[in-house]
């Protein structure tokens, strides 16, 4: 059974810092991995999608990497801003199954 | 603008009542999904549909029902058989060939009084 873990559950950093959020999964036979952002009381917004054949994806100040062999993905946020404060979730697409498995998320706070 | 619309945003229900949550998309996506989110837990899949008139149970389908009569619409009914229905419900869609990139609605918060 695929399990997805995000550590830490919460993170608080000062504005301007570069930071890394972690996502680990137990089964390397994945189809893809997605990172989402969720603001309080809102739906999820897709940030980056990495196919299993890819190593990384970039969008603006965000960079996501994927290492299937070690069961890890990282989301790198450069030059953090207060507007980046949100919960970040990763989700793994399972090969041969019609679903994503979500981590519990990391609640990020950027302090001005 | 294309997107997914969920309604109502907030819903209160008495125990023993069925309620239906609406989900409409104008993205021309074939696949649609319902997830449940509880505090401190990841999203859990309730039902999904890859095509009109067909749907499949997810991990926590008990106490829920769905229909997919139109490509644009995928309503979720929370029945009285659902033992702990208070939660945040999220609808999502993707182009095809799950698991593709998911697009989510703004969610519906259901509270049982």
Write structural notes for this entry.
The complex is a heterodimer of chains A (112) and B (113). Chain A is mostly beta strands. Chain A is built from no helices and eleven strands. In chain A, the strands form two sheets. In chain A, strands 2, 4, 5, 9, 10 and 11 form a six-stranded mixed sheet that branches. Chain A is globular and about 45 Å long. Chain A starts with a strand and ends with a strand. Chain B is mainly beta. Chain B has no helices and eleven strands. In chain B, a hairpin with a 2-residue loop joins strand 5 (44-51) and strand 6. The chains are: A mainly beta (112), B mainly beta (113). Chains A and B meet through strand 4, strand 5, strand 9 and strand 10 of A and strand 5 and strand 10 of B.
Output the keywords.
heterodimer; A: 112 residues; mainly beta; 5-stranded antiparallel beta sheet; 11 strands; globular; B: 113 residues
Span between termini of chain A: 41 Å
Strand residue percentage of chain B:
over 45%
Low-confidence stretches of chain B: none
Give me the secondary-structure category of chain B. Answer: mainly beta
Oligomer: heterodimer
Structural class of chain A: mainly beta
> Residue share in helices of chain B?
under 10%
Poorly predicted parts of chain A? none
Question: Whole-number radius of gyration of chain A?
Answer: 13 Å
So how many helices of chain A? 0
What can be said about the biggest beta sheet of chain B? 7 strands, mixed
| Mean pLDDT value of chain A | 94
Radius of gyration of chain B: 13 Å
Q: Strand-residue fraction of chain A?
A: over 45%
Mean pLDDT of chain B: 92
Sheet with the most strands of chain A?
6 strands, mixed
Return the string of H and E elements of chain B.
EEEEEEEEEEE
Topology overview:
The complex is a heterodimer of chains A (112) and B (113).
Chain A: E1 4-5, E2 10-14, E3 19-25, E4 30-38, E5 44-51, E6 56-59, E7 62-67, E8 72-77, E9 86-94, E10 100-102, E11 106-111
Parallel strand pairs in A: 2-11
Antiparallel strand pairs in A: 1-3, 3-8, 4-5, 4-9, 6-7, 7-8, 9-10, 9-11
Chain B: E1 4-7, E2 10-13, E3 19-25, E4 31-37, E5 44-51, E6 54-57, E7 64-66, E8 76-78, E9 87-94, E10 103-104, E11 108-112
């Amino acid at each position: 059974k695929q399990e997805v873990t995000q550590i830490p559950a919460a993170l608080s950093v000062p504005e301007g810092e570069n930071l890394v959020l972690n996502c680990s999964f137990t089964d390397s036979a994945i189809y893809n991995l997605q990172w989402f952002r969720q603001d309080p009381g809102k739906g999820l917004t897709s940030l980056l999608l990495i196919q299993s054949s890819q190593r990384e994806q970039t969008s603006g100040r965000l960079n996501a990497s994927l290492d299937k062999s070690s069961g890890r993905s990282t989301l790198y946020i450069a030059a953090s801003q207060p507007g980046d404060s949100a919960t970040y979730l990763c989700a793994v697409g399972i090969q041969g199954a019609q679903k994503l498995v979500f981590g519990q998320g990391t609640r990020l706070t950027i302090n001005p | 603008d294309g997107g997914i619309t969920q309604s109502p945003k907030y819903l209160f229900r008495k125990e023993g009542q069925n309620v239906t949550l609406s989900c409409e998309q104008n993205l021309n996506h074939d696949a649609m999904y319902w997830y449940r989110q509880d505090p401190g837990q990841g999203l859990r899949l309730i039902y999904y549909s890859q095509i009109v008139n067909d749907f499949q149970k997810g991990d926590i389908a008990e106490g829920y029902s769905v229909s997919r009569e139109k490509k644009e619409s995928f309503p979720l009914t929370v029945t009285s058989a659902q033992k702990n229905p208070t939660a945040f419900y999220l609808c999502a869609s993707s182009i095809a060939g799950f698991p593709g990139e998911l697009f989510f609605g703004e969610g519906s918060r259901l509270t049982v009084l």
